[in-house]
Amino acid sequence: MRVVLVGPPGAGKGTQAQFIASHLAIPTISTGEIFRFNVSTGTELGRVAKAYMDRGDLVPDEVTIAMVAGRLQEDDAQAGFLLDGFPRNVPQAETLKKMLADWGTKLDLVLELVVDDDEVVRRLSGRRTCRRCGRVWHVLFDPPSRSEHCDDCGGELFQRDDDREETIRHRLEVYQQQTQPLITFYADEGILLGVDATGPVEEITDRALSALRRFIR
Ligand code: AP5
């Protein structure tokens, strides 16, 4: 299956992507994660992306699209993929549609995680990520047993630079202005499914998977 996960910052896209992708046996392709990997390893792509990410702005389309096009052509993405964080505006969605059509395929489904702004701020301001294994925690909703360290691998936990409250508010504005129009775009294509993304993580996964089963039946 070729699936896109869309939703505001902090909706739980990364959290849900791992469970949904593993259930469908497809790779997750997260543009945010690819950018952060490039920032942390000091590549030219990371250098270009960092200034935009720190402000909470979108990285320019030509940079992002070239990166995704390359990743989608790798072997593990040929039988399907779950895109987390791409597309993020209508030009990216149109390019993705054309790119897939050129390869003789198309998206099957777009899952929208629906959550309100106050919950987003609560989730993002408490998010902590492991520097070693990348596991995501939350200081209140999913706390590690030692506050500064990952239970899985013992790595140090850090707060993302773009998870400061004023940057979170700006990311939400960017979402409203640039990403929200995708909801209409994909509704018009007849492949949009909304999922209530509030409540416990496992319940949201169950909701997403049962919506998905109904859709593909
Ligand atoms: P990206 O990494 O994609 O950021 P985002 O969309 O803002 O999403 P987040 O990663 O912040 O949140 P999430 O929805 O994955 O939530 P999570 O599961 O972590 O992009 C970062 C930047 O890269 C962008 O700002 C932009 O600059 C650039 N970029 C990326 N893609 C781009 C593109 N296509 N074009 C241009 N630029 C691009 O959960 C958040 C927290 O909540 C965690 O602590 C988690 O433990 C907790 N949580 C999750 N679910 C629940 C729950 N049910 N209850 C309680 N807590 C929960």
Describe the structure.
It is a single chain. This protein has helices at residues 13-24, 31-40, 44-55, 61-72, 90-102, 117-125, 165-179, 181-189, 201-216; strands spanning 2-6, 28-30, 81-84, 109-114, 127-130, 136-138, 157-158, 192-196. The chain has 217 residues and is of the alpha/beta class. It has a single domain, classed as Rossmann fold. Strands 2-3-1-4-8 form a five-stranded parallel sheet, sandwiched between helices. It has a three-stranded antiparallel sheet with strand order 6-5-7. Strand 5 and strand 6 (136-138) form a beta hairpin. It is globular and about 50 Å long. The protein starts with a strand and ends with a helix. The model has no long low-confidence stretch (mean pLDDT 95). Bound molecules: BIS(adenosine)-5'-pentaphosphate. Residues 7, 9-15, 31-32, 35, 52-53, 56-59, 64, 85-86, 88, 92, 123-124, 127, 136-138, 141-142, 162, 171, 201, 204 line the site of BIS(adenosine)-5'-pentaphosphate.
